[in-house]
Amino acid sequence: MTAPTQNATNAPDFGLLLARIADALDRLAPARATNVDFAIADAFVWHADPGRPEPVAKVNRVEMGLLKGIDRTRDVLVDNTTRFANGLPANNALLWGARGMGKSSLVKAAHAAVNAELAKDGKAPLKLVEIHREDIETLPALMALMRSSPFRFIVFCDDLSFDADDTSYKSLKAVLEGGIEGRPENVIFYATSNRRHLLPRDMMENERSTAINPGEAVEEKVSLSDRFGLWLGFHKCSQDEYLAMVNGYIAHFGIPIDADELRREALEWATTRGARSGRTAFQFVQDVAGRLGVPLKG
Question: What is the pTM of this model?
Answer without folding.
Answer: 0.79
